[in-house]
Amino acid sequence: MSTLAEENTIDDYPGLGSASYCLSLLFVAYIFSFIDRSILSLLVGPIREDFGISDFEYSLLQGAAFSLLYAIAGLPLGRLADRYSRKWIVSGAVCFWSLATCACGLTKNFTQLFIARMAVGAGEAGLSPPAYSLILDSFRPQHVGYAMSFYKLGTQVGGGIALIVGGFVIDYWVGIGTISLPLLGDIKPWQATLITVGAPGLLLSLLLLTISEPKRKDLASSDGAILPISTVFRFMWQRKRVYLTLFLGASMMAMAGYGAGAWYPELFSRIHGMSKSEAGVSFGTIVLIAGSFGVMFGAWLASQFDKRGHTDSYVRAIFLTTLIAIPLMVAAPLTGSAEWNLILLWPGMAMAGSFLGVLAVSIVVITPNEMRGQVTAVYLFVTNILGMAIGTTVLAALTDFFFKDDNLLHYSVATVCALFYPLAAVFFWFSMPAYRDAMEEVGKWEI
Q1: Which of 35, 94, 117, 350 suits 67 as a labelling partner, its CA being 20 to 30 A distant?
Q2: pLDDT at 148
Q3: Helix (H) or strand (E) run with residue 180 in it
Q4: How far is the C-alpha of 101 from the C-alpha of 191, rounded, in Å?
Q5: Alpha-carbon dihedral of residues 135, 136, 142, 146, nearest 10 degrees?
Q6: Contact predicate 250/386, CB 8 Å
Q7: What is the pLDDT of residue 6?
Q8: For residues 47 and 190, is the Cβ–Cβ distance under 8 A?
Q9: CA-derived radius of gyration, the chain
Q10: Rounded distance, CA 444 to CA 140, Å?
Q11: ∠ at Cα 224 (442, 5), nearest 5°?
Q12: Is residue 56 domain-resident?
């Protein structure tokens, strides 16, 4: 028989319709965020030509320009998400980065584009910390793993759409050529592409205000008051084996995944002679379908481990799928043909992407509600500094400074995968005992 407290806790959750509506809009926002951040992977050629920059300099636009401010801005925004209206933070973030993406399309030199990409990163930093918190408070524990994984599908769906639709958008504007607009002057096809993908987010930012805020749950304090930053970091440091290993494991996955993903469209164009639209459709289809399957497979696998009594089910699932991904992702770019490269990428991308939803929920379920936005921001800070800022740049640096040949890009992709996926597996393996301890502590925290 359930107690009155337990019944009240259950009643605190919004109805399935309200929770699903919230999740759907957050999912669309996450898709838009990945479209806006990923579209540059299809614009390497025209932007390099216009601005006269190298692969390494271009990697700074893809990675460092976006991720540095994304990571830094996420920390104060995560703290705000633990205290104030989460839907207003998400809505404002979407509006800001959409305007910044349009601004990218108005830039006239490398410095302006670098600054505009920083603004995109700052805006996108306001999405996931409040989104994670909203999802955890909207769905019951038995459903939250699937709900979070569905949200994280936005990574694959957004990245896939950016590559598939983006290729056609680019071809459309290339067919029209440079256009002249009053006040704005000449707009080249790559600039028109950025404006086209950025504008729809402005409408979405208004729709996000229709979300209903769920009641905050799993509080460590009776009144849910915001905790001092020192308390949050002390809580994490006392549990450093579980938080650090999860953060570093995710970072290694991000370094390999972001690095390879950012350069694969260019690899297919440069090494295998595909057009931009062919490369975008070929790789984007794999990201969209195989990547999406992998994210939900990770949630399913974790649930199977949970049914067998493994309290480390989330991390156990991530560890296993990472091991499977290693040989596939390393071998794919070395096959020598576009066909075999694509064939190996189907299972490889599925397994490599399966950690996304499972890892996100694994972190927030072991964290008190008052800290979830801040801990999520720290997680995103670490993974984006190491993953996006360094991952894409390390790969480009290998091409420019180690192999010293643009046509050896496929070796750079293989090298990054061979280095970082095995390191990720080691971190996940090491975190499992500490994660079991953390799960035992849930709901009994001493702050």
Answers
A1: 350
A2: 84
A3: strand 179-181
A4: 10
A5: 40
A6: no
A7: 39
A8: yes
A9: 21
A10: 19
A11: 60
A12: yes
pLDDT at residue 3, as a whole number:
37
Report residue 147 CA to chain centroid gap.
16
Chain Cα centroid distance, residue 390? 15
Q: Is 308 exposed, middle or buried (0-12, 13-18, 19+ CB in 10 A)?
A: exposed
Q: What is the full DSSP assignment across 182-210?
A: TTTEEE-HHHHHHHHHHTTHHHHHHHGGG
Query: Is residue 8 in some structural domain?
Result: no
* CA–CA dist 54, 52 (Å, integer): 7
Spatial contact of 145 and 299, defined as CB atoms under 8 Å apart = yes
Torsion of CA 334, 339, 344, 347, to 10 degrees: 160
Q: Does residue 129 lie within any of the structural domains? A: yes
Q: What is the pLDDT of residue 220?
A: 64
Tokens representing 29 are 């926002």
Q: Are 162 and 39 in contact (CB under 8 A)?
A: yes
**Domain contains 379:** yes
User: How far apart are alpha carbons 33 and 31 in whole angstroms?
Assistant: 5
Largest separation between any pair of C-alpha atoms in the chain: 71
Query: Token pair 């729809």 is at which residue?
Result: 200
- pTM here is 0.74
| Residue 371 CB neighbours (<10 A) | 25
Neighbours of 146 (CB within 10 A): 17
- Predicted pLDDT of residue 436: 95
Q: What percent of the chain has pLDDT over 90?
A: 40
Domain of 293 in residue numbering reads as 14-441
User: What is the identity of the amino acid at 126?
Assistant: G
Using the structure block, give the residue that is written with the tokens 């020598």: 336
Looking up residue 194, the CATH number of its domain turns out to be 1.20.1250.20
| Alpha-carbon gap, residue 414 to 260, rounded angstroms | 8
Number of domains in the chain: 1
Q: Are 246 and 431 in contact, with CB atoms under 8 Å apart?
A: yes
